[in-house]
Specification:
Distance between the termini of chain A: 9 Å
Helix content of chain A: 40-55%
Strand order of the largest sheet of chain B: 2-1-3-4
CATH topology of the domain at 6-196 in chain B: Rossmann fold
Distance between the termini of chain B: 48 Å
Structural class of chain A: alpha/beta
Structural class of chain B: alpha/beta
Order of helices and strands of chain A: EEEHEHEHEEEHHHHEHEH
Strand content of chain B: 5-15%
Number of helices of chain A: 9
CATH architecture of the largest domain in chain A: 2-Layer Sandwich
Strand content of chain A: 15-25%
Helix content of chain B: 40-55%
Oligomer: heterodimer
Order of helices and strands of chain B: HHHHEHEHHHEHEHHHHEHEHHHEHEH
Number of strands of chain A: 10
CATH topology of the largest domain in chain A: Nucleotidyltransferase, domain 5
Number of domains of chain A: 2
């Protein structure tokens, strides 16, 4: 393959779309946009900025993208495969990948050779995902970006039992009515997410080293509490939400090399 | 839109509007999932026809039989010995319970966290949507799980029900219980039909049902070829229809289908390329029109080569010994055959694990998808043991839990596709 060939990976998730363009081994472009209710228009906008010989789409919108972008050479892979490939390239020893995105949580177990050996995804409900955090931050009137820091200011750990977003919100409301501080409630909500995530990690039979990716990896409280409970250092990439798009682009490069 | 069957459905007291809606949805669903397949066998036209007339011609046949004094007996479970029903000159129909249509009505009388299959049969009855249920002179329930057991108590308010007690273990005393239950069922059927089951009739019925099982076994042997000559969806449909079609006609037509497949296998032809990943389904039954998961699997670049399920190998693996001469010997042969069923209602149920591993090996699958209906505790619990057994045989497994709703299709697609990517 000539080094001048651009290969793009696009991860069309429920909340955001990420784009990565590789040329040879190097990253030449990355961009991000909210998914909105017009995901294709958002994809078009991102794609207009770049030229790519090959595009690999992943995420919930992968089929929609592949069906609509007939002018491009598009392949698709699932986000499981994309995260596995992306994580492995950023951290070659990684054995477990945790990805908490906008509406789902994935745990991927890799064998020593880096192949997917097993995976778990949450059920149809978005409990314990980015969407949960987003709604709870709104309920507590804290900006999503600083919700983790806010929770870390808590002075005690209270337990929130509901994982259902609707019930958790009413549980938070009744805690507020009892005079509990918003910081402590925020911490309780973060702990609830971590508990759910730990159960999933254990089901897959987690092995270290472990990478934490997806948008929720930006949240300092989820990170801190997870590391505490696991007694394990988490590897967090610089751009945790770009891992899927990177993996898709890497898959595209592999396809180009094969052809 | 009027059909030649409207007056028949009206006589059966169906909710005509809702029923027309159901048929329309079913037709569309069938078109998308079945008729869209390429390289389909000519012999599947028979199945297409039977399915297109599922609530039409087949029901008319049942009404005609009833007009000639025959009784129609509906069942929900592979434990109910069809041989007894046929020996009493009655017609047995497996009631399907694979659609969500009557869910709202069902949830008025059942807890919401009840499995989709139970909700379906109760819902169909309460919503007056199923001409099979309405044609039944007797519905046979069984105690395979707590949900079904208690639901039949409610169902019995609306239809005549006979419940068979299924043993939960396989000791000598359990066999005694089952033998007593088979005899009690025989009495009930004789009373309902007014016919006495003779040794000649029972012997003939045993042979007839064995023939049906044999042709399905032959189909399963043929489909195991590589490349795969028939889609998993089509074989599932054949198994589904085996529960309600006329057994003699069904066996003859599936025999012809098998002849055609044999030709295809001899020519080395298949519906997918040789390297297509081969998968096996295992777990809860998929009743008509529950084609959701097979469709997702076969749209994700894999092909299904086996169904370890009641609507699959569990129903056809074992034959009844045909050497019995006296009534006692034949009843014993029936009892022994049905006691071999490896349903998740038994404890322990190690035979099922052995069967799954053996089947996966014989079929040379690269993975197994374990299918559980939400809230089906016996199969959900066994999924763990199945995964462990398969792991020791180096066969990966994906556990799926879902129901008849369509809202999780995208999530399921991602899981199934990721599993196919993983095993490829």
């Amino acid at each position: 393959m000539q080094s001048s060939v651009n290969v793009a990976g696009i991860d069309i998730g429920s909340r955001s779309i990420e784009l990565v363009v590789l040329n040879g081994g190097g990253l030449v472009h990355q961009a991000k946009a909210p998914t909105t209710f017009a995901p294709l228009a958002q994809c078009e906008k991102l794609m207009r900025e770049v030229s790519a010989e090959k595009v690999v789409a992943t995420g919930y919108g992968r089929k929609l993208f592949a069906d609509s972008m007939s002018r491009m050479d598009v392949s698709t892979i699932t986000e499981i495969q994309a995260y596995a490939l992306g994580a492995r390239s950023l951290f070659p020893d990684v054995r477990t990948v945790l990805d908490i995105g906008g509406q789902d949580t994935k745990v991927i177990s890799l064998n020593p050779a880096g192949k997917v050996a097993k995976f778990e995804m949450n059920d149809r409900c978005a409990a314990g995902t980015g969407k949960f955090l987003e709604l709870m931050a709104t309920a507590l009137q804290v900006p999503l970006e600083s919700f983790g820091e806010f929770a870390l200011q808590s002075d005690k750990r209270i337990q929130i039992n509901s994982m259902c977003t609707v019930f958790a919100e009413s549980e938070a409301t009744s805690l507020m009515a009892r005079g509990e501080s918003p910081e402590n409630i925020a911490m309780g909500l973060h702990l609830a997410i971590v508990q759910r995530t730990l159960a999933m990690l254990r089901r897959v039979g987690m092995e270290a080293p472990l990478m934490f990716a997806g948008g929720v990896a930006h949240n300092s409280c989820v990170r801190r509490v997870l590391e505490d409970q696991l007694e394990e250092r988490l590897f967090i990439p610089k751009n945790p939400d770009m891992v899927g798009a990177l993996g898709a682009a890497l898959h595209g490069r592999r396809l180009m090399l094969q052809s | 839109m009027s059909t030649p069957y409207d007056s028949m459905w009206e006589k059966l007291n169906l909710d005509l509007n809702a029923h027309a809606g159901l048929l329309q949805v079913l037709g569309k669903f069938y078109g998308d999932i079945y008729l869209s397949q390429s390289g389909r066998l000519r012999g599947m036209e028979y199945l297409d026809f039977v399915l297109s007339e599922v609530h039409g011609l087949r029901i008319k046949e049942l009404q005609d039989a009833k007009a000639h004094g025959k009784k129609v007996i509906g069942t929900f479970c592979v434990f109910v010995p069809e041989e007894i029903v046929l020996a009493a000159d009655a017609v047995q129909v497996g009631l399907c319970a694979g659609a969500e249509a009557g869910k709202d009505a069902a949830e008025k009388v059942l807890p919401r966290n009840t499995c989709a299959l139970i909700k379906s049969f109760v819902g169909f009855k309460l919503s007056r949507l199923c001409p099979f249920i309405e044609s039944c002179d007797l519905v046979v329930g069984e105690t395979t799980c707590d949900g079904k057991k208690k639901a039949y108590e409610i169902f019995a308010d609306y239809a005549p029900v006979h419940v068979m007690e299924i043993p939960q273990m396989k000791n000598a005393c359990d066999r005694e219980l089952w033998r007593a239950e088979v005899l009690r069922f025989k009495d009930t059927v004789e009373e309902a039909t007014g016919n006495t089951i003779t040794t000649a009739k029972l012997s003939e019925a045993i042979r007839l049902v064995n023939e049906k099982r044999r042709v399905l076994q032959r189909l399963n042997r043929l489909r195991a070829a590589s490349p795969v000559p028939i889609s998993g969806r089509d074989v599932l449909l054949v198994n589904q229809i085996s529960f309600y079609d006329d057994p003699v006609r069904f066996t003859a037509n599936i025999g012809k289908l098998c002849d055609e497949i044999e030709g295809r296998v001899r020519a080395g032809a298949g519906i997918t390329p040789k390297e297509t990943p081969r998968l096996m389904l295992s777990g809860c039954p998929m009743a008509v029109p529950n084609w959701k998961l097979p469709y997702i699997v076969e749209s994700s670049g894999a092909v299904i080569v086996g169904e370890e399920s009641c609507i699959g190998t569990r129903n056809i693996r074992d034959l009844v010994d045909e050497s019995g001469k006296s009534m006692n010997e034949m009843i014993d042969a029936l009892v022994d055959r049905y006691m071999r069923i490896d349903c998740a209602c038994f404890t322990p149920n190690t035979e099922r694990l052995e069967h799954i591993v053996e089947m996966a090996g014989d079929l040379k699958v690269s993975g197994v998808i374990h299918y559980g209906l939400s809230f089906c505790q016996p199969y959900a619990m066994e999924a763990y043991k199945v995964e462990k057994a398969l792991k020791s045989a180096d066969i990966p497994m994906l556990a799926i839990e879902t129901d008849y709703g369509m809202e999780d299709v995208e999530q399921l697609k991602t899981r199934v596709e990721a599993f196919v990517e993983m095993i490829r």
